[in-house]
Amino acid sequence: MLIDIHAHAAGEYGTVDSIKNMAEKYKLEKVVLCTSPKNLQDLQKPPSLPFTQKPNSIYMMNRMNRLAYRHFFKDNGDGNQFVSELRNQLPELVIPFLWVNPLDNGHMDQLDTIIHTYQPKGIKLHQAWNSFQIDGIEFKNLVDIASSNQLPVYIHLYSKKEVLKLLRFIRENQNAVFIIAHLTGIDLFSESGVNLKNVYFDTSSSKRIQGSDVKQAIDAFGYEHIVFGTDTPYASIDEQINRMEQLNLSDSIKEHIYTLNAKYLLALDK
After folding, report:
1. How confident is the model at residue 199 (pLDDT cuts 50, 70, 90)?
2. Helix segments in the chain, DSSP class H
3. What span, in angstroms and rounded, lies between the C-alpha atoms of 150 and 231?
4. pLDDT value for 259
5. Quick one: which of 57, 149, 182, 250 has the most CB atoms within 10 Å?
């Protein structure tokens, strides 16, 4: 069984029927969903570009994503509500994460109420969509609210500079729980000397992440801190399952990465 800890409510995960089909086809136990950019339903996989073959190429992709988000994506309603509706129809499969823009007063002023309404299992932040800074008061306020509600913060980091800021933040806020999307900045994390007891890394990506990168993360942080994600519909779930299977990991380690770590992190057995 698999828990896909990183997916968007669009494409293959955009309808009740398609989620059921994905669960049956891939033996999914749960899928963690957050909204797609501006609740866009017909997301397309990004084009294959020459610079997309290394994890750090995400920094270049982020610039393109921010430009597209600001100028080319149109608003399509409340994505958090859409995710919540999918969860209500598929409570046995869908785990909602609440997308929040720390710079949006409408989000922040009502965040405790929104959390109570939607009952998410985590908060999703995306610096390629929203240009908040890790060292800004908005980020600190959001993490405080997430921590008080015992929710992990799932973050897509924008740049190497922001990775370094997050490391300083983690050093000073050891009780906050973070999930780092796409293995972003793993070299900086592994060299930092910061206690990463409450930090987890997801495996999701397309060709930017190779099996050797996942293995590097396992060796650096321990398999207990690696969680399986796909970033569907941006990337192929088949490709990412195959990448994991080619690592020749033990069944115990694969079980932790595929399911057990996510269950512990999200307190699914409570």
Report:
1. very high
2. 16-26, 58-71, 79-89, 105-108, 111-118, 137-148, 160-172, 186-191, 211-221, 237-245, 251-255, 261-265
3. 24
4. 97
5. 182
